[in-house]
Specification:
The chain is mostly beta strands. It contains no helices and 10 strands.
Length: 104
């Protein structure tokens, strides 16, 4: 995945379009990310008998598909597509397609 935990992303579709947030979790198998403050769902959690489990209505972020977010480049502060820059030794680094700066 081109987006990692800790990245700042901007939502590019859906109800939260235009909202920026930090990636709290990346789920590469599902191609989804959890973004702070984005796609909050109310979950009705029943009492489970386990005192550690919170119950009632819990608000929390639900994962959204990576295609719905764009990485915000820390150099030019714009949502961008991610390219790869391959160094002479073969290592790949993420690169902003707009300003060509290395992101990692
Ligand atoms: Zn940039």
């Amino acid at each position: 995945m081109k987006i990692k935990k800790g990245d700042t992303v901007e939502v590019i579709s859906g109800n939260d379009r235009g909202v920026r947030g930090t990636v709290n979790a990346a789920l590469p198998k599902e191609n989804r990310v959890v973004v702070a403050g984005v796609h909050i769902i109310k979950k009705h959690q029943r009492r489970t008998g386990d005192v550690r489990t919170q119950f009632g209505i819990i608000e929390r972020e639900a994962p959204i598909h990576v295609s719905n977010v764009a990485l915000v480049c820390p150099h030019c502060d714009r949502p961008t597509r991610v390219g790869y820059d391959v160094a002479a030794d073969g290592t790949k680094a993420r690169m902003c397609r707009k300003c060509k700066e290395i992101i990692d």
